[in-house]
Amino acid sequence: MAAGSVIQYSGHKCFRHRLVLSILSGKPVKIHEIRSEDKNPGLRDFEVSLLRLLERITNGTVIEISVTGTAILLKPGIIAGGPLTHDCPLSRSVGYFLEPVIMLAPFAKRPIQLTLRGITTDDNDLSADLIRTVTLPHLQLFGISDGLELRIKKRGAPPGGGGEVQFLCPIVKQVKTLNFVEPGKIKRIRGISHAVRVNPQFSNRMIEAARSILNRYIPDIYLHSDVYKGEESGKSPGYALSLLAESTTSVLFCSEATSKPGVAPEDIALQATRALLSEISKGGCVDQKHQSLVILLMVLGSEDVGRCRMSQPTPRTIQFLRDIRDSFGTYFKISPADPTKPDSSDLLYSCYGTGYVNANRDLA
């Protein structure tokens, strides 16, 4: 919905992705009617915090927020990068802030060294563990690998937080074209179970329960118990299990479950395990949590046709494809991946890359 040169949207959904697309494409974006019908209208504290973080990562970005907080205008600058520290509010985990930063970081002027403090694992966003073990390897598909790292210094469970993670990302001139169409067969399952400020035995109980299901399918299972003590364990008690399955062609599927009051560790483990099996059954080469990241990097790829096999798009992915059309004018061709198998729901996503070159880097 472009009016003049400003792209206009309404509503608070897909807020992060629209800001990222604006900064990468260099087109200003205006978002209005943000929770205008709500009892508590306007931007939430975590959204304001994200705007502050994006303003610090970039140079020359102008953000205007209306008096009621129900409308914002972002005029993008260049992505500067460099060392930064940001305190995240306790309403969302650090994953909420890391996802948009990961999309921007490779195209910065200087390599980003970002320290985020707050909650490291919650139910709403990807945990620090999954970002480290699953999201970052997806960047390696596009040739972004040397010096790419996420360090979990301290864990922080909700509601008190107290966690700390450090994200390091190199800069690239251009991302490679993706051609990822072979899902392969699942060859190994890995997992990290952690328990902070509770009985350390909870961690082992989660591992035992997860194994009771996973051992039926595959022998190569390694679930690691990650114990943090004292200062490093944050301010609140909690435990969680993150699982990932890897295939012969390096496809990664992931799932996680976090502790809830009154729910036994075994039930948390079963929830994570079933979620992983459900994700694997959907098929494709990229799991549903990472569709948007891969689609964005395909659009920014060199001027060639990129192809990727994925499962059915989630509603968020469908909206993201529409937003990409507004920002970059790129359309995707989506066709059945295997027309010979009518029962297969896998789709082949293909697009022509825009040949996006990191101009910020040349100024350095």
TrEMBL record:
Record flagged with keyword ATP-binding: no
Main location: nucleus
Keywords: Nucleus, Ribosome biogenesis
Regions that span the bilayer: none
GO cellular component, one term: nucleolus
Residue span(s) of domain RNA 3'-terminal phosphate cyclase: 8-334
Superkingdom of this protein's organism: Eukaryota
PROSITE patterns attached to this UniProt entry: RTC (PS01287)
UniProt cross-references to InterPro entries, sorted A to Z: RNA3'-term_phos_cycl_insert, RNA3'_phos_cyclase_dom, RNA3'_phos_cyclase_dom_sf, RNA3'_term_phos_cyc, RNA3'_term_phos_cyc_type_2, RNA3'_term_phos_cycl-like_CS, RNA3'P_cycl/enolpyr_Trfase_a/b, RPTC_insert
RNA 3'-terminal phosphate cyclase insert domain span: 181-281
Entry's Gene Ontology molecular function annotations: RNA endonuclease activity
Presence of keyword DNA repair: no
Entry-linked PANTHER family: RNA 3' TERMINAL PHOSPHATE CYCLASE, RNA 3'-TERMINAL PHOSPHATE CYCLASE-LIKE PROTEIN
Similarity comment text for this entry: Belongs to the RNA 3'-terminal cyclase family. Type 2 subfamily.
Protein name, per record: 18S rRNA biogenesis protein
Source organism phylogeny: Eukaryota, Fungi, Dikarya, Basidiomycota, Agaricomycotina
